[in-house]
């Protein structure tokens, strides 16, 4: 069977499984909750894997992930502060945090000129460390809020969509889809960059401009995702590799495949997080627990 | 018409001057060689010519158009660049590597057209890499890879081809294959500019040479007029023996080991 069809079928299977499987009886209320979880799972898993693929392509570095650029740490910091103030996760605060830190990373990377792309990783990593320290402080200051902050850091798809936040979430998803299509434009540029900066420049690509554009768009996208579902790990780092193993190096093909695979993987991990224990585990814990052995298996083949 | 015209170019990294007020030009259809010792500014000059680096002062004209006034994609339709060595981080098929040479002709979501696939076929055949087309690029030897990169540059259908030491790291067979290919392309009207460390190859294949030294052009002219003991002694600080090629009227250089 052809691979595209196969992963789409597996994806649909994952959607079905995550709606049906769970500790509670499938009443119409539970059904509604599960649907909103599925929507968030597809959105977060797909986008994170997609962004990971874009960034690994731009930096030519297989270890880069969506959180390397710092905007996720910013969202975590903003979100934590929001939790301290309001006692519950506030996406607006998280998003403001991601914008603020993204701005710092951008500014640091621009100091003294040079190739923006190469300074970006260092700036992102440094700011992430700063944010982690600050998040630790918020955790120490919080009492009951500690638990909420932990879920924000690990990622959690179970936020309840109700009439007050529904519109906002729909708008955010729509904006994200727009950004993703915009980023997908650059599939050929990413192919070329994998053959070196000079090759890319020789073929007429403005690396400086491209890096800035991709940085801004992915930072925004990642900030949106983390603000809603928290900093789910592993998906953005490893799914793009799996996608390249299965679908080859052309970004035209492996970016959409990353989206589908990331969505599938996160849905299954989320289902597992509901089933494995009586407590609902943060999904970010499960993604790494399940994902790492699977990845090692696939890489050894 | 001039393929390339360079007027009063200066370039520096931080405070180090690499190119100092250089002026030269190259006629359309010429096979020009840039030679000179390490650090003379040859590779920097090549990168300025194709717009990868921007000089702090001076102007570069490609086919009578100022490089500053051409957008980057249309520049890449006129001039293509073959780096010394390409590292392929992703293991593309050979034909996909060559297809990326069509980038300057395609907009974001445009699929490759008939003329693009034709250009790729042509380039694969020309660079003699047709037999590898379905192989992953990293399974090829460095000589074969260099020919694939050349094919990618040809798929750009440029008027001018720039090469940075295209034959370094290659064995005799691949050196010869690359130089013969360049000669053939040049005979069909393509302007070729190559940076070369191998003076004998440069002398054998280039119609005219630029000898660069400490960021300036020390001398320019035909291999016969330029390759002489005085120039080489001054620039390379080395005594050499120069004799005429047995089959062709060009100078060839021999080292003589000390103490013999």
Explain this structure to me?
The complex is a heterodimer of chains A (301) and B (260). Chain A has a single domain (3-8, 26-39, 53-300), classed as ABC transporter involved in vitamin B12 uptake, BtuC. The model of chain A has no long low-confidence stretch (mean pLDDT 88). In chain A, helix 2 packs across helix 8 and helix 3 packs antiparallel against helix 6 (145-154). The longest helix of chain A has 32 residues, at 28-59. The radius of gyration of chain A is 19 Å and the shape is globular. Chain A contains 13 helices and no strands. Chain A is mainly alpha-helical and 301 residues long. Chain A starts with a helix and ends with a helix. Chain B is α/β, with parallel strands linked by helices and 260 residues long. Chain B folds into 2 domains: 2-63 and 159-255, Rossmann fold, CATH 3.40.50; 87-157, no CATH class. In chain B, 32% of the residues lie in helices and 28% in strands. Chain B contains 9 helices and 12 strands. Chain B has helices at 42-49, 72-78, 94-99, 114-126, 142-155, 172-187, 199-205, 223-226, 229-236, and strands at 2-13, 16-27, 31-35, 57-62, 65-66, 79-82, 160-164, 191-195, 208-213, 216-221, 240-244, 251-255. In chain B, the strands form 3 sheets. In chain B, strands 6-7-8-3-9-10 form a 6-stranded mixed sheet, sandwiched between helices. A 4-stranded antiparallel sheet of chain B has the order 2-1-4-5, with helices on one face. In chain B, strand 4 and strand 5 (65-66) form a beta hairpin. The termini of chain B are far apart. In chain B, 42% of the residues are buried. The A-B interface holds A 60, 185-186, 188-189, 191-192, 194-196, 198-199, 201-206, 244, 248-250 and B 47, 50-52, 71-77, 80-81, 83, 86-92, 96-97, 100-101, 103-104, 106, 108-109, 149, 156.
């Amino acid at each position: 069977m052809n691979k595209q069809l196969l992963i789409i079928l597996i994806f649909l299977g994952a959607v079905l499984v995550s709606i049906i499987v769970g500790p509670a009886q499938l009443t119409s209320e539970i059904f509604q909750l599960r649907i909103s979880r599925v929507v968030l799972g597809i959105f977060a898993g797909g986008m994170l894997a997609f962004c990971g693929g874009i960034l690994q392509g731009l930096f030519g570095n297989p270890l880069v992930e969506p959180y390397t650029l710092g905007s996720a740490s910013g969202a975590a910091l903003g979100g934590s502060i929001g939790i301290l103030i309001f006692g519950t996760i506030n996406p607006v605060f998280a998003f403001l945090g991601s914008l603020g830190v993204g701005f710092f990373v951008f500014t640091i990377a621009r100091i003294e000129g040079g190739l923006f792309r190469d300074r970006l990783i260092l700036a992102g990593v440094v700011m992430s460390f700063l944010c982690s320290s600050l998040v630790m402080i918020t955790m120490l200051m919080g009492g009951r809020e500690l638990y909420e902050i932990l879920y924000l850091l690990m990622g959690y798809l179970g936020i309840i969509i109700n009439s007050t936040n529904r519109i906002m979430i729909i708008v955010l998803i729509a904006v994200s889809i727009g950004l993703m299509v915009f980023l997908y434009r650059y599939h050929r540029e990413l192919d070329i960059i994998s053959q070196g900066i000079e090759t890319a420049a020789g073929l007429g690509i403005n690396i400086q401009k491209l890096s800035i554009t991709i940085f801004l768009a992915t930072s925004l996208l990642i900030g949106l995702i983390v603000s809603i579902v928290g900093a789910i790990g592993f998906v953005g780092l490893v799914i793009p590799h799996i996608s390249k193993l299965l679908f080859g190096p052309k970004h035209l093909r492996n970016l959409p495949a990353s989206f589908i695979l990331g969505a599938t993987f996160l849905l299954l991990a989320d289902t597992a997080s509901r089933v494995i224990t009586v407590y609902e585990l943060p999904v970010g814990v499960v993604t790494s627990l399940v994902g790492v052995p699977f990845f090692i298996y696939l890489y050894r083949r | 018409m001039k393929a390339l015209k360079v007027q009063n170019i200066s370039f520096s990294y931080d405070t180090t001057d690499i190119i100092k007020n250089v002026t030269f030009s190259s006629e359309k259809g010429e096979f020009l060689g840039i030679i000179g010792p390490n650090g003379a500014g040859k590779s920097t000059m090549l990168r300025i010519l194709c717009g990868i680096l921007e000089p702090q002062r001076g102007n570069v004209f490609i086919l009578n158009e100022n490089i500053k006034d051409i957008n980057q994609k249309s520049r890449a339709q006129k001039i293509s660049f073959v780096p010394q060595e390409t590292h392929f981080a992703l293991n593309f098929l050979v034909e996909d590597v060559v297809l990326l040479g069509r980038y300057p002709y395609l907009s974001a979501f445009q699929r490759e057209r008939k003329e693009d696939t034709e250009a790729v076929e042509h380039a694969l055949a020309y660079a003699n890499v047709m037999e590898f087309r379905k192989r992953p690029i990293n399974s090829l030897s460095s000589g074969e890879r260099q020919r694939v990169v050349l094919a990618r540059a040809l798929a750009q259908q440029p008027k001018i081809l720039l090469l940075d030491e295209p034959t370094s790291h290659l064995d005799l067979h691949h050196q010869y294959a690359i130089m013969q290919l360049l000669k053939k392309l040049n005979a069909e009207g393509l302007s070729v500019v190559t940076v070369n460390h191998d003076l004998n190859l440069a002398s054998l294949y280039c119609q005219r040479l630029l000898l660069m030294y400490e960021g300036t052009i020390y001398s320019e002219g035909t291999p016969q007029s330029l390759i002489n003991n005085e120039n080489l002694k001054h620039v390379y600080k080395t005594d050499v023996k120069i004799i005429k090629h047995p089959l062709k009227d060009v100078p060839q250089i021999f080292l003589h080991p000390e103490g013999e």
